[in-house]
Amino acid sequence: MNKKGFASDNNSGVHPEIMIALTEANKGHTVAYGDDAYTREARKAIQHHLGERADPYFVFLGTGANVLGIGALSSSFHSVICAETAHIQEDECGAPEKFNGIKLLPVETDDGKIRVEGIEPHVKGIGFEHHSQPRIISITQATELGTVYKPEEIKEIAEYAHQNGIYVHMDGARIANAAASLNVSLREITTDAGVDILSFGGTKNGLMYGEAVVFLNAQAPDEFKFIRKQGMQLASKMRFISAQFLRYLSSDLWYQTAQHANEMARLLAEEAEKVPGIEVTQKVEANGVFARVPRDIIPRLQEEFFFYIWDEPQSVVRWMTSFDTTEQEIYDFVGLIRRLVDKG
Ligand SMILES: Cc1ncc(COP(=O)(O)O)c(C=O)c1O
């Protein structure tokens, strides 16, 4: 069996309930490309959580959701304001720029969140033809640093954005973790907070694959179906994405899995901080722990429990927990940290 580590929630497998849903959907023939009952029901399930006006389009990848969502609301002369740590800025190999031609404007951040004071300096040159035109503010929920925007923080950004004719995009690859952390509904941190378009994640929280671009307060352009097809994200066997979302959202599965992953991160941070020399560097609000760790123990730790170094010069590592992380794994991992620190 592959040993579990703390590298990524993407390293976990598929939640057993989702596997059952996939198997159940694997019967007979159904019309391809989304004209099927699973997709219709999954769209309704998303509307149940995000509001009647929510207009979802299923895609394969988070990067695909971000690229297509941003592309739907922008032209190549537009700019997108985001955190310097945002996945669209750091980890999508320039895909949002390449496919949409837009310019990303990164905002400095210590905790993964951006705020109006950091955004404001980029909102300039509106109507000035020499300047790329600010069109979208993109925020990540939960952030790449494991922190979470409260509903009122999102509202503040959305109000500012809308006053300036700018849309709000949310990269919700870990939206379930954020909602579970805040103990709020998905709607409270999206539609009701003024988010216009959401990349709705599933893969990191137990799906095999599958995300959705969801238009909330903004209307999907008529041509969005062409944009998705041309963007290579129209699944022929879409029923398998839809069946997963349907199962995920029809009960509190999405919440339970996210809450568990969050709990495990909290436990890991709490236990790790008891070891002298370990310093947790970010608030642990979702399923990620960022910690400064003595440099010399990192390779030995990684041999047993794989994880990534986040900031090499600062000796800060990132530990991610998943729906299937167990308490025992946390205690085993922290036990090893303690033994290595004591030896050193
Ligand atoms: C914040 C965030 N957004 C989006 C993604 C989606 O990435 P992918 O294209 O690998 O599904 C990830 C995955 O690591 C992520 O962490």
Keyword list:
single chain; binds pyridoxal-5'-phosphate; 13 helices; alpha/beta; Aspartate Aminotransferase, domain 1; 7-stranded mixed sheet; Aspartate Aminotransferase, domain 2; 4-stranded antiparallel sheet
Structural features, described:
- The model has no long low-confidence stretch (mean pLDDT 97).
- The chain folds into two domains: 15-250, Aspartate Aminotransferase, domain 2; 253-343, Aspartate Aminotransferase, domain 1.
- The protein has 13 helices and eleven strands.
- 49% of the residues are buried.
- The chain has a seven-stranded mixed sheet with strand order 1-7-6-5-4-2-3, sandwiched between helices.
- The protein is α/β, with parallel strands linked by helices.
- The structure holds pyridoxal-5'-phosphate (PLP).
- Residues 61-63, 87, 140, 144, 171, 173, 203 line the site of pyridoxal-5'-phosphate (PLP).
Short summary:
This protein has 344 residues and is of the alpha/beta class. The protein has helices at residues 16-25, 37-50, 62-72, 87-90, 95-100, 116-119, 151-163, 175-182, 224-230, 239-250, 253-273, 298-304, 327-343; strands at 55-59, 78-83, 103-107, 133-140, 167-172, 197-200, 211-215, 279-280, 288-292, 308-311, 316-320.
Mean pLDDT: 97
**Considering the protein shown, what is the CATH homologous superfamily of the largest domain?**
Type I PLP-dependent aspartate aminotransferase-like (Major domain)
Strand order of the largest sheet: 1-7-6-5-4-2-3
Element-by-element helix/strand order: HHEHEHHEHEHEHEEHHHEEHEEH
CATH class of the largest domain: Alpha Beta
CATH architecture of the largest domain: 3-Layer(aba) Sandwich
